[in-house]
Amino acid sequence: MLTLACSWLGMQWVHEAGHVLGALATGGEVERVVLHPLSISRTDLRTNPRPLVVTWAGPAFGVLAPLILWGMARGFSLDSAYLFRFFAGFCCLANGAYIGLGSFDAVGDCGELLRNGAAMGELWLFGALSSASGLILWNGQGRHFGLGNNGQPVPFRHCAGLAAITVGLISAGNLFFGTG
């Protein structure tokens, strides 16, 4: 459960970081970022000269950044690399489902993308590729979480680390970005 909570919060952070970076790179001005564990995250912009770029930057960065983190964890042979893999899979699945399925109701970023010229097929393609990538990353990982015949206990230090990160993300979100 802790892994899911931490992944949800981390996914919100990297997704919104993508919007912020996209805005800054295109001359936009960020008004505020809302990051709260009990609400849907969002980035409000004061000015947004390139809305299509800024909107795509959220899910794109939200998928790529965790994949890079997992690659780095693997490269350094961290024994916690499985947690980074889980997080990358979570972010791929969450962003993919959000964009792919959200396209049908044009909710949130999907509505912005469609209003600013993205084709429905682009959203479906992103959704399918990202979601499938997430499921592929998750495949066979249950053993690291104590599941299956070869299940291994999760090391206490990994649980403690996830708890600290979760508390840190909640605290930083409330301190710096407010509750909504």
Automatic annotation (TrEMBL):
Residue ranges of the TM segments: 51-70, 82-101, 121-138, 159-177
InterPro entries cross-referenced by the UniProt entry: Peptidase_M50B-like (IPR049500)
Keywords: Membrane, Transmembrane, Transmembrane helix
The keyword Aminoacyl-tRNA synthetase appears for this protein: no
Protein origin, superkingdom: Bacteria
Protein name, entry field: Peptidase family M50
